[in-house]
Amino acid sequence: MNPNLIIFDTTLRDGEQSPGASMTREEKVRIGKQLERLKVDVIEAGFPAASPGDFESVRAVATTVRDSTVCGLARAQESDIRKVAEAIASAASGRIHTFIATSPIHMEKKLRMTPDQVMETATRAVKLARSFTDDVEFSCEDAVRSDPDFLCRIIETVIQAGARTINIPDTVGYAIPYQYGALIESLIQRIPNAHKAVFSVHCHNDLGLAVSNSLAAVLAGARQVECTINGLGERAGNAALEEIVMALKTRRDVFSVDTRIDTAQIVPASRLVSTITGFPVQPNKAIVGANAFAHESGIHQDGVLKHRETYEIMRAEDVGWNASKLVLGKHSGRSAFRARLSELGIELESEAHLNAAFQRFKELADKKHDIFDEDLHALVSEEVTEPHKEKYSLLSLTAYSETGEIPHAYLVLSCEGHEMESEAQGSGPVDAAFKAVERLVFSGSELLLYSVNNITSGTESQGEVTVRLSRNGRIVNGLGADTDIVVASVKAYLNALNKLGAGTERMNPQM
Ligand code: KIV
Ligand code: ZN
139: which strand partners? Predict the structure, then answer.
């Protein structure tokens, strides 16, 4: 096999632009390592100009990941480009991705620039980026609503200036597959120096067509697809990596392209991104949804048992299902724990962190017989937030619920190092516990989402809770895991409150 289609993952950049999906540096490094295991060719690690935290995250991913190219996004501005160059300097292979809008509506209303000014700015940006690295990508933001003649002119010019990848984004998710395919084909045919660049696509899912549009573009000659795990991304998201990769692999007869992706790492990547961002995966989601390979109806089950290909076009194990490993139990020692974390690519900052995580693992193993990789990821997610350094943490909780009685919760929190207690009634124990928290913290936030999933299967599993809060236009996701879902819920609520308090403002590159 000679991989000839580049998979560019932008979970850590465009995915992070989904409200509430922002990730810490440690979280980005963990996802970055999983993307490397998945063998994506390019990891877009962030937008370094957004904030000092984003800069550090891109730098940390660039330093850690060795087997994928690490890319940073820059507007077509000198300061953005210099920041990316610095952030990716330690990468084994680094890319600068610069962009500017090319559609009339964006040029006039957002940039307030003429097409000639846009062309000049783009050319200058690409030349500057090329002074740092040979690997420069240029994107025509809102390409689908741009004038094709202008696209031809600007693309020819930026290729002359040194861009090696040309990305044609459907920024607003407006394209229809046959038109998008035709656009890509005509650009490749009309631009005289098109052979000097790889044509790339980047599709948003506003009409639910991101994957279809990306595949139409591959048929038309695109050789890089930008996508995200679970289709995370701005608004309705981006094209889902897992769907693109499995469509190309399952229908190789149609597409005739190969990728480097290790498909057995798809489900672990999906789980990790969902755990870290707090965006659950819908059960009927293709490839990575819990029901994607479940055969409910009797006829289908009968067919699958007689001959699996009657109803299955892919094998669950090929995308990493059923790979949940029973890893550790109550009697596992510290070195087995450390070894499994390292196999998962999780490195805790210090011996003290490892000891604290091991202690929490022992507590979990007392409650739950078998510990799986997913449990370890959840446990470590809590450890890296360093509960002892957070403004709020849970010390104890008692929740009462009895048929015919009003549910009631009593809890003790550590609030900036002080022990404080509170109680409240509610419509259920979780509602009562959240009200008890609010009596202490008066956060003034609005609860946008509350969701519970089990991390592994069975009632013995830990419940993983996501709480999404908003305050003054800022949205954060909090996560908590525990075998007791009321405890998991309070942990998630406090995690969200801590993020609301700690947050720094980030800039969206496309505003
Ligand atoms: O959707 C878009 O146009 C983008 C660009 C910055 C590539 O995300
Ligand atoms: Zn985008």
Answer: 99, 167
C-alpha to C-alpha distance for 159 and 126, rounded to whole angstroms: 9
Give me ligand 1 centre to Cα 345, in Å: 30
Residue 331: partners with Cβ closer than 8 Å, 6 or more residues away: none
What pLDDT, on a 0 to 100 scale, did the predictor assign at position 390?
A: 82
- 37-86 pLDDT per residue, tens: 999 999 999 999 999 999 999 999 999 999 999 999 999 999 999 999 99
Q: Which pLDDT does position 28 carry in this prediction? A: 94
Hey, how many other C-beta atoms are within 10 angstroms of the C-beta on 178?
A: 12
The closest-lying atom of ligand 1 relative to the alpha carbon of residue 172 is: 1
CA–centroid distance, 366 to ligand 1, in Å, is 47
Q: What is the pLDDT of residue 354?
A: 87
Q: Which of 66, 58, 7, 71 is nearest to 29 (CA)?
A: 58
Residue appearing with tokens 């991390």: 455
Query: Which structure tokens are listed for 236?
Result: 């309705």
State the distance from the centre of ligand 2 to the C-alpha of 10, rounded, in angstroms.
8
Write down the domain spans for the chain. Answer: 6-277, 326-384, 390-501
What is the residue whose two structure tokens read 């450890």? 383
Q: From the CA of 107, how far away is ligand 1's center (Å)? A: 15
**pTM for the full predicted model:** 0.86
Residue of 147, 326, 332, 313 whose CA lies nearest to 246 = 313
For residue 73, the ligand 1 atom closest to its alpha carbon is 6
- CATH code of the domain made up of 6-277: 3.20.20.70
Which listed ligand is nearest to 97 at the C-alpha?
Answer: 1
CB within 8 Å of 97: residues ≥ 6 apart: 44, 71, 72, 73, 74, 84, 136, 137, 138, 139, 167
All residue ranges of the chain with pLDDT < 50 are none
Question: CA nearest 421: which of 400, 431, 436, 432?
Answer: 436
**Ligand 2 mean position to 510 CA, how many Å?**
9
278 three-state secondary structure: coil
Identify which of 8, 97, 139 to mutate to test ligand 1's pocket (most ligand atoms within 8 A of the CB): 139
Which numeric CATH code is attached to 390-501?
3.30.160.270
Take residue 498 and report the two structure tokens written for it: 């801590």
User: Pocket around ligand 1: residues whose beta carbon is below 6 Å from it?
Assistant: 14, 99, 139, 141, 167, 169, 171, 202, 204, 510
SS3 state at 248: helix
